[in-house]
Amino acid sequence: MILFWKLNKVPLLLTFVSFFLYWLFAYDLIRTEYTKLIILYCSVWVIFILLLKYAKNNIKFLTAIAFISRAIFILAIPNLSQDFYRFIWDGQMLSMGFNPYLTTPDYQMSLGGLSGFPNQVKLYNGMGALNASHFTNYPPINQLCFFIGNLFPGNSILSSVIGFKLIIIAADFGTFFFGKRLLERLNIPVKNIFWYFLNPFIIIELTGNLHFEGVMIFFLVWSLYLLHSGKWKWAAVVFALSISVK
């Protein structure tokens, strides 16, 4: 253990600092604290660059850091975006057998709301007036993600948030899986995958703030891998799934 610490002291110290900064991002940051936001964001980027410098060839170590960094955000309500309220709303509509494309939240609430709709008022207030007054613009596969995420046990907003985050984390690991193989086929160093997988922007905006571009990227990378493997028909289907997310 002492020998391991001596050999990996700098990467381990950088890792612990990185985890602490991500924890601050997840649980101790208010959207309007602009100075704090900029300092934290710049700091995690500096740590990210240094980690790639000192541990660039340690694939397992960097993979573990990427996973734990995402796990830190699991219990956090997104603090830099309110779009997730609409995601939960649309998912709840689907789970109750309603088509989310047919009505706006404003219209639904003007009728008095739906019985058995968990946290309906909180979701309506949380999404904001602009979102509530418009029809949903999220494609079918994205809507399926909203439905699946709402199946996570519990009726709280946090339970749905956790369900969404698990989907996005799974998609990121799918991108990692097929991305590595695509890089190998292209004779590009596999370590380059960490420019995406360990990227602070990706971790904060996708897992942290629940943006489903991560699912879109997963299908896109998978389709490119299939295309490069000569399976162009399946590549077309998977590429269509990517488009149907975003």
In percent, how much strand structure appears in the residues? under 5%
Q: Secondary-structure element order, as H and E?
A: HHHHHHHHHHHHH
Oligomer: single chain
Which geometry do the CA atoms define?
flat
Question: How much is the radius of gyration in Å?
Answer: 20 Å
Note poorly predicted spans. Answer: none
Number of extended strands: 0
Mean pLDDT: 93
Largest sheet report: none
Distance linking N and C termini: 46 Å
The proportion of residues forming helix, as a percent range, comes to: 55-70%
The secondary-structure class comes to mainly alpha
Tally of DSSP helical segments: 13
Descriptive notes:
The chain is built from 13 helices and no strands. Helix 8 packs across helix 9. It is flat, with a radius of gyration of 20 Å.
Helices and strands, with pairings:
Layout: H1 2-7, H2 9-27, H3 34-54, H4 59-72, H5 83-95, H6 105-110, H7 120-132, H8 140-149, H9 157-185, H10 194-197, H11 200-208, H12 213-228, H13 232-243
Helix pairs in contact: 2-3, 2-4, 5-7, 5-8, 8-9, 9-12, 12-13
Record keyword descriptors for this entry.
single chain, 246 residues, mainly alpha, 70% helix, flat
